[in-house]
Design a protein that fits this description.
- With 852 residues, the chain is α/β, with parallel strands linked by helices.
- The protein is built from 30 helices and 24 strands.
- α12 packs antiparallel against α14 and α21 crosses α22.
- It starts with 11 loop residues before the first strand and ends in an 18-residue tail after the last helix.
- The protein binds adenosine-5'-diphosphate (ADP).
- Adenosine-5'-diphosphate binds next to α14, α19 and α21.
């Protein structure tokens, strides 16, 4: 078609009656079609038509098609928009309907309705000129000033939006390229307008009139946008985006007052935060970072996830105790008294702690080794740490490291991660609020390792006095001075502490307690504490020492006092019930006596009522105070004893011996059992043994085989070749626990010697020691814990390697007095001590036959 020539729409148009939305020329609308007439139109005209003409329909706004075919056609709006059906989508759900996409071409006026069924068709007159968009100049001349004014507003509106958004940039291009006469219709459909306003624009057939009507709409839109930008200044970018993407929804949105207030509040908060940052005593480097961040925060829209992140970060920075510390009040004499008052026994530990504190007092400098308390659970490691903080007048914070296998647990996550947070050290400092607390690093031996890095390496930096004055948490990303923090570590064993970490620490062994110590601890500390926790007084409950001893020997088997404490707690709970019941019964008669007034009478009747329902079986008199906890009461409360003295029972046949083992939970006694059967000389070992233990078993057998004649050891058929036609099975009970270490050597030898000689090992002997192939006994570790375990189990004689004699000094005198120690340097001595009446050695005849 030649440029400038007008395009004509057909003079007869099928009519689509729409109820919602007004289609204006130049814009596109999606409309749902479900009424019978409209459906017919789509089916027979749009879906069956083949020419372009057949896709042109007349859209009449503001009329809904009647729901049934036979209903009369309603009165139709006079002016409509000729439209091109661009897309038809059909669906059966929830009921049959089509969705039409139509693009408006030009206005038309209905001249005459030609038919109503199956869909209305009308003779129409085209009202707008429809031209190819090439000759703008002509239209500009015609429209003059009004058009200029309109154009100005349109440009102003578009410029208020963010040009970097593609949709806005496209709109801007449209403004420049479309003929101006098309703009009022297009802009009206884009900006926020009501259907009524759109209808008015549709009815404005004259172009001049249309311009006049659209200008106020544009102005209103611009004003709304201005207001929005003013109230949401910091979040400008964001809003522009929202407005640009959904122009007809948001542009006219005027923020409500409550939202206004909230924003102001937030703004105030940020100002406050800035003030706090400036007045806080953080390091220069930190201050610089914080000021930079707050500058960013001010510009950031609140809805951005980073806003909350940055804010949290700044709040943490303000809260951290950069320069806040407690004043040390250290006086060694007071410290000694306090430590003694809080803890019974553990003399060596207390002595070392006092030395440590004394050095602190003399030399006002915290550089020095980190103390690490190593010992079984429940021996008071944590509570000594707490006492140290108390003596120094410092805050105390415990950091549990058990199972930590990610270094960011110590050093924090970088802030780029979602959910990032500072590490435990910085978190701890925030919690205590001072920069010189006592940090107890609990269970350093249970640090794990994983793909996320080695937490032990991170701890090295924390504990190294040369480095920790500028410890940099990944989250903070600025250095924090940890040099004033007093670190104390605890562990159950040094074996699993990474060597580099171990190197930074001074190990103080905290061994388990003897029975006597436990009784003292129970009566001096644990029982009073439990009574207080349960609201009881010594007048109400009495636990004699024999009962405590019973609890210790029959209900617990531990190096520390934790389960003893728990059992005492259980007793107190049971007694509390009795006492409360007793009080209940005692108070009732009192109330009845006093109860003369109305109120009291009511109470009494209520009380008697409840009792008559619930209390028939419980008519026993209130227990007499104090309630005495004897063995029967114990059995009642704690159930039957868990550990019986079973030692002598188990040693009633040959092939059993008692060894002593060391575990991170303290010392333990261990029964080693052996049996022999017909076979081919095989050795079977059971009970989850490590390699070293298996080697010890082989060593023991080899030594016994080579010395069988000397000791008159024979197999079942009387041969000195012990493995001839014989299999041996060695078992170490408690098969679920992995056991390893060389110290069972002597026990295996004794057990096998008993098996092959048919003699019983003394039932009160326990032993420990490594053996060599030549029959020497080598020293082993953990003697103190092992001796305590043997003592706990009621054994009387302990065979230890000669070279472990020095370790006996550490053992309390009363324990030593109860026990007899046999110091053995070779297996002969072990066997002699282990069997009643010694283990006879056949004299070596060859020695007499000297050839000299
Ligand atoms: P650990 O840290 O060694 O596992 P805890 O310090 O938690 O053990 O001690 C457990 C409980 O035993 C605490 O209530 C503690 O007060 C008490 N306790 C341990 N040893 C003693 C002691 N020597 N004197 C007084 N109470 C003790």
């Amino acid at each position: 078609m030649a440029a400038g020539s007008a395009i004509q729409i057909p003079s007869r148009l099928p009519l689509l009656l729409t109820h919602e939305g007004v289609l204006l020329p130049g814009s596109t609308m999606r409309t749902s079609v479900d009424s019978p007439r409209n459906m017919q139109l789509v089916r027979s005209r749009l879906l069956k038509g083949t020419s372009l003409r057949s896709t042109i329909i007349g859209v009449i706004p503001n009329t809904s098609d009647p729901t049934s075919d036979c209903d009369d056609l309603p009165s139709l709006h006079r002016i409509g928009t000729a439209a091109l059906a661009v897309q038809v989508v059909g669906s059966n759900w929830p009921k049959p309907h089509y969705t039409l996409l139509v693009t408006g071409l030009c206005r038309f006026q209905i001249l005459q309705l030609l038919k109503e069924k199956p869909y209305p068709v009308a003779e129409v007159e085209q009202l707008d000129r429809l031209e190819q968009f090439t000759n703008q100049h002509k239209s500009e001349e015609e429209l003059g000033e009004l058009s200029e004014q309109f154009y100005k507003y349109a440009v102003q509106l578009v410029e208020m939006l963010d040009m970097s958004v593609p949709a806005v940039a496209k709109l801007r291009r449209l403004l420049d390229n479309l003929p101006r006469e098309a703009l009022p219709d297009i802009l009206t459909s884009i900006i926020r307008t009501s259907n009524q306003e759109k209808l008015q624009i549709l009815d404005a057939v004259r172009l001049e009139e249309r311009f006049k009507m659209t200008i106020p709409l544009l102005v209103r839109q611009i004003e709304g946008l201005k207001l929005l930008q003013k109230t949401r200044k910091p979040k400008q970018d964001d809003d522009k985006r929202v407005v640009a993407i959904r122009p007809n929804r948001r542009i006219n949105h005027i923020p409500s007052t409550t939202e206004d207030e909230e924003e102001e509040e937030d703004h105030d908060d940020v100002v406050m935060l800035e003030k706090k940052i400036r007045t806080s005593s953080m390091s220069e480097q930190a201050l610089k970072v914080c000021l930079k961040e707050i500058k960013r925060l001010k510009k950031m829209p609140q809805s951005m996830p980073e806003y909350a992140l940055t804010r949290n970060y700044l709040e943490l920075m303000v809260e951290l105790p950069w320069n806040k510390s407690t004043k040390d009040r250290l006086e060694i004499r007071a410290a000694r008294i306090l430590l003694d008052n809080d803890h019974y026994a553990m003399e060596k530990l207390k002595k070392r702690v006092l030395e440590y504190l004394a050095v602190r007092q003399l030399k006002n400098n915290l550089k020095g080794p980190i103390l690490c308390f190593v010992g079984p659970p429940g021996v008071g490691k944590t509570s000594v740490g707490r006492s140290i903080a108390k003596t120094l007048g410092r805050e105390f914070h415990r950091i549990a490291l058990g199972g930590v296998c990610d270094q960011s647990d110590i050093r924090g996550h970088r802030r780029t991660y979602v959910g990032s947070m500072p590490g435990r050290i910085i978190n701890g400092l925030k919690t205590v609020g001072v920069n010189n607390p006592v940090f107890l690093l609990d269970e350093v031996d249970k640090l794990g390792k994983s793909l996320q890095g080695d937490p032990a390496a991170a701890l090295l930096e924390v504990l190294d006095p040369e480095q920790n004055h500028s410890f940099t948490d990944h989250y903070l990303n600025v250095a924090f001075d940890l040099s004033q923090v007093l670190f104390i570590a605890t562990a159950n064993t040094t074996a699993t502490i990474p060597p580099a970490l171990l190197d930074r620490m001074e190990i103080i062994q905290v061994p388990g307690y003897t029975q006597e110590e436990k009784i003292e601890i129970a009566h001096r500390h644990l029982i009073p504490k439990q009574l207080e926790q349960h609201g009881l007084t010594p007048q109400q409950i009495q636990i004699p020492q024999v009962t405590t001893l019973d609890i210790i020997t029959r209900y617990t088997r531990e190096a520390g006092v934790r389960s003893l404490d728990r059992k005492l707690g259980a007793i107190c709970r049971a007694v509390a019930v009795k006492v409360a019941e007793g009080q209940h019964k005692e108070t009732k008669p009192d109330r009845a006596e006093v109860g003369e007034g109305e109120d009291c009478k009511e109470h009494v009747t209520e009380d008697t009522k409840t009792e008559s329902i619930s209390d028939t079986a419980d008519l026993a008199l209130p227990p007499e105070m104090p309630i005495l906890i004897d063995f029967h009461a114990l059995k009642d409360i704690l159930g039957p004893p868990m550990y019986e003295m079973e030692v002598s029972e188990r040693l009633s046949q040959p092939g059993v011996a008692i060894g002593l083992a060391w575990t991170p939970l303290g010392g333990e006694i261990m029964f080693v059992e052996a049996s022999r059967m017909d076979g081919e000389g095989q050795l079977t070992l059971t009970g989850q043994l490590g390699d070293v233990m298996k080697e010890s078993a082989h060593l023991a057998i080899s030594w016994l085989r080579s010395n069988a004649k000397r000791y008159q050891l024979t197999n079942a058929s009387g041969s000195f070749d012990l493995l001839d036609n014989t299999d041996i099975h060695l078992h170490f009970p408690a098969g679920a626990v992995t056991k390893d270490g060389p110290s069972a050597g002597v026990t295996i030898v004794t057990c096998l010697a008993s098996l092959f000689s048919g003699r019983l090992v003394c039932s009160d002997v326990a032993m420990t020691g490594e053996i060599t192939l030549r029959g020497l006994v080598l020293p082993v570790g953990g003697i103190k814990d092992k001796v305590l375990a043997a003592h706990r189990a009621g054994l009387k004689r302990i065979i230890i390697p000669q070279r472990n004699e020095k370790d006996l000094e550490e053992i309390a005198v009363n324990v030593r007095q109860d026990l007899t120690f046999v110091l053995a340097s070779c297996l002969d001595e072990v066997l002699n001590a282990a069997f009643d009446g010694g283990f006879a050695v056949k004299p070596r005849v060859e020695r007499l036959n000297s050839k000299l």
